[in-house]
Amino acid sequence: xxxxxxxxxxxxxISIGSYHGYDGEYITAMxxxxxxxxxxxxxxxxxxxxxxEQTEEEIALYTVRGPACIQDIVVSxxxxxxxxxxxxxRVEGQFGSAGPITDRPPEGFGDDYDPFSGSDSMPVGIxxxxxxxxxxxxxxxxx
Length: 143
What we know:
By secondary structure, the protein is mainly β. The protein has one helix at 45-50, and strands at residues 3-7, 13-20, 25-32, 38-44, 59-65, 70-76, 83-85, 92-94, 101-102, 135-140.
């Protein structure tokens, strides 16, 4: 289920997380760590559920939709990890959650952040757009 984070300083809102799309595809909402541009990664349902269980002979096909263009990504065990370039700020890096275009929570939240854990304290993260420590969890939605 995707989660939305919003900045009270520059009003940037980003979404991260996976949901079921149209035509039997899964979509993962992502963003650029450097500028906050929103991205969407599309993959087949069977590939989404297979995850890291693919064999060496298999390749993974992804479509990454950004603010200005669409990039097709092919990931194979025997090839170097492909790179992505942000449409907005032009930063380049490896494809994957550790790269510049990610599905991880903004800096300051931690990868295992659970807004529904019952904790009284709500962390505040760093906005990827204005770099202020004003990014807060806003909502979670289902499809």
